[in-house]
Design brief:
The complex is a heterodimer of chains A (252) and B (386).
Chain A (H helix, E strand, L loop, with lengths): L3 H17 L2 H10 L10 H33 L5 H15 L3 H12 L3 H25 L3 H9 L4 H34 L9 H10 L2 H41 L2
Helix pairs in contact in A: 1-10, 2-10, 3-6, 3-8, 4-6, 5-6, 6-8, 7-8, 8-10, 9-10
Chain B lengths: L3 H24 L3 E4 L7 E3 L8 H18 L2 H31 L7 E4 L1 H21 L4 H18 L7 H8 L1 H30 L5 H13 L2 H18 L2 H4 L7 H24 L4 H9 L4 H34 L8 H11 L2 H32 L3
Antiparallel strand pairs in B: 1-2, 1-3
Helix pairs in contact in B: 1-2, 1-4, 2-3, 3-4, 6-15, 7-11, 7-13, 7-14, 8-11, 9-11, 11-13, 13-15, 14-15
Classes of the chains: A mainly alpha (252), B mainly alpha (386).
Chain lengths: 252, 386
């Protein structure tokens, strides 16, 4: 059960920050902070960057979800038991390479632009997603699984009708973390020449122009907070559907 | 019947690992020779290298992987560790010698950089070595292998075996810069951990307003680091405009201040969670007994809560430190310097070896912090079992 205010908080902060990225508001804000009122990023350019940001993060996230959840399901099958021990270690090792470094390392391989960003995003997020999926499926109570086998469900039915529905809540939580990471990594992609909301931040820092920097920062943060709030709402809705079914299946 | 399938899968996995190792070593270029440090070089395969060292490395590595999959128990894992470690050492040696041979007698600007086959082979060997060490269940083996490779690596470096590789040339050219950046990076990340630790300890005391603090601390995690750093630059410059005397004290909007504050902000969550969990770790009955024995709250904190919570605290510190090393990289963006500066210079020049020169120490630092504090955490758990 997610308390309403944990959804409302990020959502309100997100809307406030989105408002702050508007050219006029950002310029006023910069003046209040004592900077010169220099040229702001026009609204249509900001929207274009935002859409591009969403598209890149979405592509990366779709790849992460497909591969992470798919491999996670494979890793929890009986035949893969000896591989499972390695997953935690590999996930920890992958986290030792921060997203900025991932983007930088992907740069010589793929050149400037979107591709190194997507590669970095996938490389950084896939192991946490895989580990989260494995953890979620392993957390399904053995009684539920055995009961399903006892009533004659095939392995495929056990997976689709028992394991995945019961694991969905935790998998969705992992996906939320991956989403936040995706938005952040895509912003860092601005350093590798991808046109994202990170671009005005990097450009503003280089030109010492506070206005686009504020706009980029506020818009990036707003995007992350709003996406997070949307998924939180989705997760709490899913949990409300799932709890009766889950309770029935875990305590037969 | 149940035991057979995992065993077969282990053999299958080690067989595919061995195939992958041989495939990347012989199917992909292991070295690239370029006219200068910025262009992509011509590929050279393992067969082009002089001598048999690389073939020996491939054979030993594949053998080690097969033994890891086929032989159960400590002896098999130990043998696999020995074979894989030898293979890794031979591979590095072969690449260094091969690079020296291929650039001998050519202009000094010519560079020999590692090809995709070499990187992937090192990755496969390193991963399987880690798995073999884990399978051996010997707690001292991991640190022993790490120590031995550090000694061997230093010896090979001193002997100049690796000097022909482009990465080594790049390092020689920027020895001071990289050293200074490393020092700065350590200062930034350790400073941020210290700052966040202090704030987390201060925030742990008051009972009121806990929900709001929790909400804010976890809300920060959602904000992308690049946005927070940018926002902090704007805020600090506003603060400096409002109170110009701060400038005289050495504060500036670009520099270590936003990086330190921004990094520390992200560390609040793991440290705060760890601190709360650590203080709540002792059984209430133990605390009641301590109070009944007449211990003061201060003694209860120092002699019961902190020792019993020590493993959790060290675990939180481990997460925070690894995050801190990564986040400090982004600090270079706001002018804080550190290893991120080397990475960004490499990106600006499109020089892959310079990017690696910054990236490798960051990865090694995170990895070393994770391993060392992991050992400390396990030690604390043995010393003070919950």
């Amino acid at each position: 059960m997610t308390p309403r205010r944990t959804i409302l908080g990020p959502a309100l902060a997100g809307f406030a920050l989105a408002l702050g990225s508007h050219p006029e508001v950002a310029r006023r804000l910069a003046v209040t902070l004592g900077a010169e009122p220099r040229r702001a990023l026009p609204l249509d350019r900001l929207l274009e960057l935002g859409l591009n940001h969403l598209a890149l993060a979405g592509i990366g996230l779709a790849l992460v979800a497909l591969m992470g959840i798919g491999l996670g399901i494979l890793a929890t099958r009986d035949f893969a038991a000896p591989l499972r021990a390695g997953i935690d270690g590999a996930a920890a090792a992958a986290q030792a390479v921060p997203p900025v470094v991932m983007v930088a390392l992907a740069l010589p391989v793929l050149g400037f632009g979107g591709p190194p960003t997507v590669l970095a995003l996938v490389a950084y997020s896939i192991m946490p997603m895989l580990r989260g999926t494995v953890g979620a499926i392993e957390a399904v109570s053995p009684e539920a699984r055995q009961a399903a086998i006892a009533i004659g469900l095939s392995p495929r039915q056990v997976l689709l009708q028992v394991e995945l529905p019961l694991a969905a809540g935790i998998i969705l939580d992992t996906f939320r973390t991956a989403l936040v990471l995706a938005v952040a990594t895509t912003a860092v992609g601005g350093l590798a020449g991808a046109s994202t909301l990170g671009t005005p931040i990097v450009a503003g820092l280089q030109n010492q122009n506070l206005v686009p920097m504020l706009q980029g920062a506020a818009a990036t943060a707003a995007l992350a907070l709003l996406c997070d709030a949307a998924l939180l709402a989705a997760a709490s809705r899913l949990r409300r559907w799932n709890i009766p079914a889950g309770r029935g299946a875990t305590c037969p | 019947m149940n035991g057979r399938t995992p065993q077969a899968a282990a053999i299958g996995a080690s067989l595919s690992g061995a195939t992958l190792l041989v495939g990347v070593l012989y199917g992909l270029p292991v070295l690239r020779i370029a006219a200068n440090r910025l262009v992509v070089g011509l590929p050279f395969a393992a067969a082009d290298l002089p001598g048999w060292t690389i073939d020996a490395a491939a054979g030993l590595g594949a053998g080690g992987l097969l033994i890891l999959g086929a032989v159960r128990g400590r002896a098999g894992a130990g043998l696999a560790v020995a074979l894989l470690a030898t293979a890794l050492a031979l591979l590095v040696q072969a690449l260094g010698a091969g690079a020296a041979e291929l650039i001998a007698g050519r202009p000094p600007a010519v560079r020999a950089s590692l090809g995709s086959g070499a990187w992937l082979a090192v990755g496969v060997l390193g991963t399987s070595l880690a798995l073999a060490i884990r399978a051996s269940r010997l707690p001292w083996l991991g640190p022993a292998v790490l120590g031995a490779s550090a000694v061997l690596g230093t010896l090979a470096w001193q002997a100049g075996s690796l000097a022909a590789l482009s990465l080594a040339v790049e390092y020689e050219a920027r020895r001071e810069v990289v050293g200074a950046a490393l020092g700065r990076h350590l200062l930034l990340s350790l400073g941020a951990v210290l700052l966040a630790g202090l704030v987390a300890a201060l925030l742990a005391a008051p009972r009121r307003g806990r929900g709001v603090v929790d909400l804010a601390v976890s809300g920060i995690q959602v904000v992308p680091a690049i946005a927070l750093f940018g926002g902090l630059v704007a805020l600090i410059s506003g603060l400096l405009n409002a109170a110009p005397t701060l400038r005289d004290w050495g504060f500036s909007a670009l520099g270590p201040a936003p990086a330190l504050l921004g990094t520390a902000a992200y560390l609040l969550l793991p440290l705060r969670r760890g601190l709360t969990a650590a203080l709540d770790a002792p059984d209430p009955a133990v605390l009641d007994a301590a109070t009944a024995m007449g211990l003061t709250p201060r003694e209860i904190l120092m002699r019961i809560r902190l020792p019993l919570g020590a493993p959790i605290l060290i675990g939180a510190l481990r997460v925070a430190l690894v995050q801190s090393f990564g986040l400090a990289t982004l600090g270079a963006l706001v002018g804080a310097g550190g290893l991120g500066q080397v990475v960004f210079d490499g990106m600006a020049q499109f020089a892959p070896d310079l990017i690696l020169l910054g990236a490798i120490p960051i990865v090694l630092l995170s990895f070393a912090a994770d391993q060392a504090l992991g050992v400390a955490e396990a030690g604390a758990r043995r010393r003070w079992p919950a």
